[in-house]
Amino acid sequence: MAGERPVLIRPLLTEKSNRLSAEGKYTFRVAQYANKIEIKHAVERTFQVSVTKVNVIRVRGKERRLGRYPRGHTASWKKAIVTVAKGQSIPLFEGT
Predict the structure, then answer these.
(1) Number of domains the chain contains
(2) Which of 38, 39, 42, 85 would disulfide-bridge 50, Cβ 3.0–4.6 Å?
């Protein structure tokens, strides 16, 4: 749609997310403004699967040193773990 903002930013491909994908759970970095309903619709539209559950986690930014300056912060972001219906999968996560 013309005026929609992007909800899914990118998939998270880590060891833990690879283990979860075997259970039908897929992990994405999502926009901070996105809610569970928007995330569910975005995944269903993008990958043509039925989403049964969405869990959302806010990941706080960490304090980091910036050379000789005292401190800075990495950006906070939002993660979503999406469970798809039994027997369905997202091919993007397969073969990793």
Answers:
(1) 1
(2) 85
